[in-house]
């Protein structure tokens, strides 16, 4: 399956550098304008099916880039749930012991009332299984930076770190991937076709 995974446009939370996962915020004015400008210069891929995480910023990005509503919502492609850290900045959190515990072992420690990275990655893999079950030849998925990193780290283990896989806003990757194996193992049959 050819899958294009694209990060939504900029929100005010992105501009303010806040942890924004499950909080349903729309694109900011700057984000809408920047995404419309990108559409004029970037050859965004087409597909048989267009999918969103269901959060406003993803749906709105899909409308701007493709002038359409999603064919399907895969809620497992929502951003990580930061729990009590949602909509807070590093400066607000840095001295809190629970934040220090989380950043000290992000893979295994959950955000208070939120997810651990392990739980988040497991959820994203369920989303890949749902995508595979759709049995289409190509898909565009408008989602979130953390989701894209989770997918890329799973499909291409050891190739880059978190920040290496994190695409810019409105950017992403087009992959050729056997999703049947992608959700089950770390030794997938996957190829990076292009960066968007």
Q: What does this protein look like?
A:
The model has no long low-confidence stretch (mean pLDDT 92). The chain has a six-stranded mixed sheet with strand order 3-2-4-1-5-6. The chain has 196 residues and is an alpha/beta fold. Helix 2 runs parallel beside helix 3. The chain starts with a strand and ends with a strand. Strand 2, helix 3 and strand 3 form a beta-alpha-beta unit.
Helix-strand layout with pairing:
Layout: E1 2-7, H1 12-15, H2 29-41, E2 49-52, H3 56-66, E3 72-73, H4 90-93, H5 97-104, H6 117-133, E4 138-143, H7 145-155, H8 162-165, E5 172-177, H9 179-182, E6 190-195
Parallel strand pairs: 1-4, 2-3, 2-4
Antiparallel strand pairs: 1-5, 5-6
Provide a compact summary of the structure.
Helix content is 39%, strand content 15%. By secondary structure, the chain is an alpha/beta fold.
Give structural attributes.
six-stranded mixed beta sheet, 196 residues, alpha/beta, Rossmann fold, single chain, 6 strands
> Considering the protein shown, what is the CATH homologous superfamily?
Phosphoglycerate mutase-like
Task: State the CATH architecture.
Answer: 3-Layer(aba) Sandwich
Beta-strand content: 15-25%
Fold-level CATH name: Rossmann fold
Percent of residues in helices comes to 25-40%
Oligomer state of the chains in this structure: single chain
Which secondary-structure class do the elements indicate?
Answer: alpha/beta
Largest sheet: 6 strands, mixed
Q: Over the alpha carbons, how many angstroms does the gyration radius reach? A: 16 Å
Number of strands: 6
Order of helices and strands: EHHEHEHHHEHHEHE
Any idea of the CATH class?
A: Alpha Beta
Mean pLDDT comes to 92
SS element count, helices: 9
Low-confidence stretches: none
């Amino acid at each position: 399956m050819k899958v294009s995974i694209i990060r939504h446009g900029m929100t005010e939370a992105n501009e303010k550098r806040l942890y924004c996962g499950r909080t349903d915020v729309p694109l900011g004015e700057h984000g809408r304008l920047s995404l419309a400008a990108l559409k004029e210069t970037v050859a965004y891929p087409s597909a048989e099916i267009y999918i969103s995480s269901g959060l406003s910023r993803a749906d709105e990005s899909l409308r701007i880039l493709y002038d359409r509503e999603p064919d399907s919502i895969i809620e497992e492609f929502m951003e990580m749930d930061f729990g009590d850290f949602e909509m807070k900045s590093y400066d607000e959190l840095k001295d809190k012991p629970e934040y220090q515990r989380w950043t000290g072992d992000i893979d295994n420690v959950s955000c208070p009332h939120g997810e651990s990275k392990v739980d988040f990655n497991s959820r994203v893999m369920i989303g890949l299984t749902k995508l595979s079950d759709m049995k289409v030849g190509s898909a565009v998925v408008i989602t979130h930076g953390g989701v894209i990193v989770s997918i890329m780290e799973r499909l291409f283990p050891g190739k880059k770190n978190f920040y290496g896989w994190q695409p810019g806003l409105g950017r992403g990757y087009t992959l050729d991937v056997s999703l049947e194996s992608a959700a089950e193992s770390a030794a997938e049959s996957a190829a990076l076709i292009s960066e968007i």
